[in-house]
Structure formats: structure tokens, C-alpha cells
Design brief:
0% strand; 140 residues; mainly alpha; Four Helix Bundle (Hemerythrin (Met), subunit A); 5 helices
Length: 140
């Protein structure tokens, strides 16, 4: 992933934090959702950049497809965290008359979750299976 993509995601996360802190002019009832939208965009940008850096051009595909590709690129823990954060932020972004809006605390936790994923994506690599490593012994 390029430094530009990482800095772009970091900038969006900083904006999300300032929205939550009340330093942007956003109606009070919309603060958690506005911050969640910014954090989700940061995550989506970081995932897309990581996929692109690996040669996977996924411009016309949805985020679920990108998260599947990310799992193939970096393996379980990082991709699981990304998928969990994306699902939580997607729920927080959508307004439903029958559900409570997300709280500032819930969105703040999701923002930190995204920050951890964005930080770990550049150095995350899928481990090679033992049989394909140089010097690995044959099981048979």
C-alpha cells in the first residue's frame, strides 16, 4: 500500500475524530453517523489501495468482494478486523426508523478499530504454506 493511501486514510480518520469531538459544524443528532461515514471511507480507501498494490484492480466490485480479495492477500486476523469494522460502520451509517442511532462511544471504538487495520495493512502479508517455503521438508 502506498504512503499516500495510508495518509489519506489517516486524514479521514482524523476528520472522523474531530467530528466526534464537536470541532466541525455537524448537527448534534448526526455526529455519530457523519463520523462513521468518514471512518468507513477511510477503511474502504485503505482496502482498495492494498488490493491495487497487489495488482488486483477491483474498481467495479463492491466492498464485500474487496474484503474477500483482502483475505486472500493478507490472511485472517487483519482481514477479519477489516470485515468486522466495515460491517459495524455500515450499520452505523444507515438510518432506520426502528433502530437507535449509534452512540459516540460506539463510533469512537470503530474508528480506533479502523485505525489499527489501516496501520497494519502495509506490512500484512499472507503467510506461505509450509510446503511452498524453500527448504521445507516433504510430508510424504
Amino acid at each position: 500500500m502506498t504512503g499516500t493511501a495510508t495518509s489519506s486514510a489517516a486524514a479521514l480518520l482524523d476528520h472522523a475524530r474531530t467530528v466526534l469531538a464537536g470541532r466541525h459544524t455537524v448537527p448534534a443528532a448526526q455526529v455519530p453517523r457523519a463520523a462513521a461515514i468518514l471512518a468507513r471511507q477511510a477503511l474502504e480507501d485503505a482496502v482498495e489501495a492494498r488490493c491495487r498494490a497487489a495488482g488486483a484492480e477491483l474498481g467495479g466490485h463492491n466492498q464485500r468482494s474487496r474484503l474477500i480479495v483482502l483475505r486472500m492477500l493478507v490472511g485472517g486476523p487483519v482481514s477479519d478486523s477489516a470485515a468486522t469494522a466495515w460491517a459495524g460502520l455500515s450499520r452505523a451509517c444507515h438510518h432506520h426508523a426502528y433502530e437507535l442511532a449509534p452512540t459516540v462511544g460506539e463510533v469512537a471504538q470503530l474508528i480506533e478499530h479502523v485505525a489499527a487495520v489501516v496501520t497494519s495493512l502495509p506490512e500484512a502479508h499472507r503467510p506461505e504454506p509450509a510446503a511452498s517455503r524453500p527448504g521445507a521438508r516433504d510430508a510424504g
